[in-house]
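Standup notes
- DV: blocked on the single-chain target, sequence here:
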Amino acid sequence: MTDATSARPWRILVTGVGGAPGLDVARRLMALGCEVVAADSDPHAIGLRLSDVTARVTMPAYRADYAASMLRLCTELRPDAVVSAVEQELPHLFGLCRALADLGVALWLPGLPAITACTDKARFAEVLADHGIPAPCTVLPDQLGQAPDGPLIVKPRRGQGAKDVICCDTRAQAAVLCELVADPIVQEWVSGREFTADCLVDRVGQASVILRFRLVVKGGLAMVSQTFDDAEVERQVRAVLAATGLVGACCVQGFLCEGGPHRVVITEANLRFAGGFPAAEAAGADLVGQYLNGLFGHRIDHDRLRYRPAVRLTKSYETLAVTEGITP
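- DV (later): unblocked, structure below
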């Protein structure tokens, strides 16, 4: 895909290429004809080994000098846009919006309240409760007495990729786990068919929603996904998008709980492409292509985001690069 003003390919900086979302976004952008700067804070990140990318190792988002280092990188390489697959980066990137715009670098982010709702799971639970959207009971460690004394999940309040997510059976066990997990929350365990909604919300608030079941999940990544239609699930997903104020590419996760007090229960929303988004594209949705349109201020064609249900996609691990003569 090219810049119409110069007939050259867009140069896109993609962060977090060590994880499935960033890796697959980088690959899809290259397939669309973009130049990709692949960036990750881990020098061993698999996406840095992609052929035909400009690879850069970046500062982790928790470092105090992350914002300055990102600004230096963009000054050096002059990408046309930054696409982040690391949610912890988003508050810092929001603060860089004006400086990056001065460099001619596009970002597509919502307001800070929406970013906070997606990067802080406790805040997300509050937003859903305020809007009457069914969600698991979610409490902080000092509120454990309000949690149900049944199966519970302890997870980082600002985590990503299912890291340090631990299941337990009682509040007493959860109290111990809260000492082990950094900045934790405790959630009611939900049983049902797990789903993800791959979403693209344009600049006037119109959203396209592609639903898929997470049939096989390993390490938080849907290895097998299958698209489906369900009016009630779509309605609740759209309610989440409206309540949080999300724009651009995002995803909403939840459970379809037949026979429970609520048929659809929402568990989280992420302001990035989901790890299993290739299933949406396999089902006919031009997700990344239309995202690029919106990123650069062009109209999103929601007709090109229609999809076929009952399309199943299976992901697998692969050997991407073998390097010899490397010292430890």
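- Follow-up: The first strand starts at residue 2 and ends at 3.
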